[in-house]
Design brief:
The protein has one domain. Helix content is 23%, strand content 38%. The protein has a nine-stranded mixed sheet with strand order 4-6-7-8-9-13-12-11-10. It has a two-stranded parallel ribbon with strand order 1-5. With 242 residues, it is of the alpha/beta class.
C-alpha cells in the first residue's frame, strides 16, 4: 500500500530527558482553511534542522507540498535533516525519489530498496542523485535486493571520464546477492585479500581529464553464502572521493 503522509513525530532531549511531539495533519486537506493550517506547519518545519528522521512504508506527499507552495519561490520547500532513512517499496519508490530530489537535504542519505523488485527502471534517477546532488547529499547509502551492475558501471565510467565536482564524496552500495562486478581497467594500486571466505578488494581510479580527482574504492564480497548482520551473502561497494 502506498502511504503518502503529512505527519511528523519528533522529539528533542534536554539534560537527558526526551520530549516527544506528534504533528498530525490531513494528507489531503479538503478546504482552504485546512490547507492554510497544513502549509503553516510545513513552513515551520522547513525552517528547522533535524538530527535524524526515518520513514517506513510512508513518505511526505510531494504532490501536496507542491500544491500548497505553488508560486511561492521565496520559501524553500526543503527539509534539512542530518541523517535520513527511507524504507522503500514498489508502490512507494517513485514518491520517495521525488521527495528526495525536490524536498530534502541531508548529510547522510540512506535508502533501503530491498523491497523494490524492478529497481532498474529508476537507474537514471539514482545515478543523477549520486553524480549531481553531492552538495545536498555528501554521504549516500543505497541498499538493493539484487546485483545492480548497471549503476556500478555508470559510476565507474563517470568518475573516470567526467567532471566530478558535483558527485557525492562518499557513496556506499550494498547488494544482498551476487552482483558479478568486473574490476575496471583503470584500477590502480589494486589490493585483493581473502579472509574467512570473503574477498576484499581495494583499488583507486583517477579521472582522465582531472588527474587530481581520485576515488578510493573498496568492496567486500562473500565467496559463499554466510550470515552477516543477520542477512544472507552480500556485496558491499564503497566509493570515496579523495
Amino acid at each position: 500500500m502506498t502511504r503518502l503522509v503529512i505527519n511528523f513525530l519528533f522529539f528533542y532531549s534536554v539534560d537527558g530527558n526526551s520530549v516527544w511531539y506528534a504533528l498530525k495533519l490531513e494528507n489531503f486537506p479538503k478546504n482552504i482553511e485546512k490547507m492554510i493550517i497544513v502549509r503553516c506547519w510545513l513552513e515551520h518545519l522547513f525552517k528547522c534542522a533535524f538530527e535524524h528522521c526515518g520513514f517506513g512504508d510512508a513518505v511526505f506527499n510531494p504532490e501536496m507540498i507542491n500544491i500548497l507552495f505553488d508560486n511561492h519561490n521565496t520559501i524553500p520547500t526543503q527539509f534539512n535533516i542530518q541523517q535520513k532513512y527511507f524504507l522503500s517499496s514498489n508502490n512507494l519508490c517513485k514518491y520517495v525519489l521525488d521527495f528526495v530530489l525536490n524536498h530534502l537535504a541531508s548529510r547522510y542519505l540512506h535508502i533501503d530498496f530491498t523491497r523494490v523488485d524492478i529497481i532498474e527502471q529508476y537507474t537514471d534517477i539514482l545515478f543523477n542523485i549520486l553524480i549531481n546532488e553531492g552538495n545536498k547529499f555528501p554521504k549516500v547509502f543505497f541498499q538493493f535486493k539484487f546485483g545492480f551492475p548497471r549503476l556500478y558501471d555508470l559510476i565507474v565510467e563517470h568518475i573516470t571520464t567526467r567532471d566530478c565536482s558535483k558527485i557525492a564524496p562518499y557513496i556506499y552500495l550494498k547488494f544482498f546477492y551476487d552482483a558479478n562486478f568486473i574490476l575496471s581497467e583503470r584500477a590502480e594500486n589494486v589490493e585483493i585479500k581473502q579472509l574467512n571466505g570473503v574477498k576484499y578488494t581495494n583499488y583507486q581510479i583517477s579521472n582522465i581529464n582531472y588527474p587530481n580527482s581520485r576515488f578510493y574504492i573498496y568492496s567486500k564480497e562473500p565467496e559463499v553464502e554466510f550470515d552477516f548482520y543477520a542477512l544472507r551473502g552480500r556485496l558491499l561497494v564503497e566509493f570515496r572521493k579523495e
